[in-house]
# Entry
Amino acid sequence: MAARHVGGLIGWLAGCALAPVLMGMLFGRGWIVVGITCSVIATMWLGLWLPRAAHRAFETARYKVARRRYRAIYALAFSTSRARAAQLSIAATELAAGHHAEADALLATIDPATLDHAEHAVWLNNRACAALDAGRDPHAALAEVDRAVALRPDVPGILHTRARALVAVGRLDDAIAVLEAMRAGGELPLRLEAERCRELAAAWERKGQRAYADDYRDRARLHAI
# Structure
């Protein structure tokens, strides 16, 4: 994979350098500036706009769009770390869309030994989500997401997965505490806030507190995208 992405980077740089030269040769010197401008715009599109657009699509629950953009990032990745990040993001969109088998298969292709701390936390979190979504052992899922939290305790999405696992194993008070702590860093994206409220509704329902559960279900509907 490393050779593939190094080759991709060399090819991209060569293309960016060659485009102005070719345009100048074909259409005249004035077109060299046009070629340079096109190369700069294309590089900014790949390096800045596309990742932001992919994340924005994910946060607004447009999972097909997000998956398509993450796949483009992966196909055009210039480094193994960028490719791994795109793979993890693709797996997250598969999970969010309910495609558990596809997410499992993709996560299985990633060697955790090659990941840095942040990537490893995302990988563990995605595996825990896949296990919970598929109805597998919630205790094993909790063990994995606990490892993810130890690596990245500041990520609300990972805390949300931990709360889901805590609800699944019956540790309701712990789950409620984690869900309340998710907003310690400020407002959450609408999609995640809706999911947080749904988990709080489930926890309070299991505790026999129907009024609290109904209130959080109403909040979930309010924030649903």
In short: The chain has a mean pLDDT of 84. Residues 30-59 form the longest helix (30 residues). The radius of gyration is 22 Å.
